[in-house]
Automatic annotation (TrEMBL):
Record protein name field: DUF4383 domain-containing protein
Annotated keywords: Membrane, Transmembrane, Transmembrane helix
Pfam families: DUF4383 (PF14325)
Taxonomic superkingdom: Bacteria
Segments crossing the lipid bilayer: 21-40, 60-80, 87-106, 122-142
Taxonomic source organism: Nocardia acididurans
Keyword check for Transmembrane: yes
Amino acid sequence: MSAHSVGTRRINLAQWSFLQWAVLVVGVVHIVWAVVGWTVNSSFGIGEHAHATPVAGMDYNGWHAVAGLALFTPALLAALRKSWSAWYCLAAGIGGGVVVGVWALFSDRVLIFTFPNHTTDAIMHLLTGALLFALVAVQTALDGDLRKTLGLTGSGRPASIG
């Protein structure tokens, strides 16, 4: 295989959709928030030893910061394509937004972690999930079709990548 047979695809930021830019911004903001949270409280204690420090409304410790990095770092990759951004928003909105948010509403313990300000955390998770869903809704309105936003053709097959 020669070097000429390997295709290169340049990232053309001028052609990015609203959703791609939004996912990039949301990802960067949450990554910075997680790094700041980790800097403020890098504790990896568990149970009653899992102390948390509020940072911009969210309880942070080492565990929560790592979880934030794990959830939002993929946004940087997802932003490269509109359909990836849409699927990312739906998955992160459900998992990191709704599921964790509802759980935190009713309990100050998540697995082995204790979060004393769990109601505030729950609200922040639910708001983040709602934001991610809203971003998909806006892009769908711009595209005129959810299938187009998700990268699906009328047949339900993925649209061509090229």
